[in-house]
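Structure (tokenized):
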């Protein structure tokens, strides 16, 4: 009642369902028009428009452009589907067990898996959203760097951010943790991360410093 901005809802472009032990990927084609060429233009083009060569060439040129557009949209949808299938394969643990099991992933991993260029993967994942059993996520969310653990493995940076938020949410607000203390607590969870990186992630999460979070009561 106080805001003036319109509410913008996000519709998933891809749906991921778990059926039995397998994940099924489905594209949301609801917002896409069913494009086709009017058969009238086919007949007109073949008839030669009473031997009017210019008119015939004009119609044939427009038909070629229309066919190119339709094929381009279909190809883009196939690419989105391939990328989604690959993401599901790489992020199976996340789909099964949640954000703490998000896997470090880069565009190159998907590009090599489906045989496409990284720039293509980057384009088709922009402003695309996937509805999963864990919630609605932008495809870009699944691409993140890795942080080493004490056991020699790697954990996704988004998982580290989530752990920082969990620790802050559970802290005593009268004695909030410093960034150094957060780094020490993360180390207790086998996550090696420098204090300055904690500060960077905390700011990305829009969490205030310890002095800003302190409550006097």
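Design, position by position:
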């Amino acid at each position: 009642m106080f805001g003036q901005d319109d509410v913008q809802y996000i519709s998933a472009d891809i749906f991921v369902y778990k059926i039995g032990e397998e994940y099924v990927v489905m594209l949301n084609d609801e917002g896409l028009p069913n494009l086709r060429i009017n058969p009238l233009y086919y007949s007109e083009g073949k008839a030669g428009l009473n031997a009017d060569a210019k008119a015939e060439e004009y119609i044939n040129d427009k038909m070629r452009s229309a066919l190119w557009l339709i094929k381009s949209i279909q190809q883009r949808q196939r690419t989105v589907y391939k990328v989604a299938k690959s993401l599901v394969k790489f992020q199976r643990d996340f789909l099964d067990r949640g954000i703490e099991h998000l896997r470090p992933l880069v565009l190159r991993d998907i590009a090599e898996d489906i045989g496409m260029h990284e720039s293509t993967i980057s384009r088709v994942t922009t402003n695309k959203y996937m509805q999963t059993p864990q919630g609605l996520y932008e495809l870009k969310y699944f691409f993140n760097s890795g942080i080493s653990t004490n056991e020699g493995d790697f954990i996704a940076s988004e998982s580290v951010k989530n752990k920082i938020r969990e620790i802050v949410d559970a802290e005593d607000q009268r004695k909030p943790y410093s960034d150094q203390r957060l780094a020490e607590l993360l180390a207790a969870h086998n996550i090696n991360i420098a204090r300055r990186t904690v500060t960077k992630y905390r700011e990305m999460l829009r969490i205030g410093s310890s002095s800003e979070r302190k409550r006097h009561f």
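Reviewer-requested clarification: The chain has two domains: 14-142, 146-213. Residues 146-213 form a domain with the Arc Repressor Mutant, subunit A fold (CATH 1.10.10.60).
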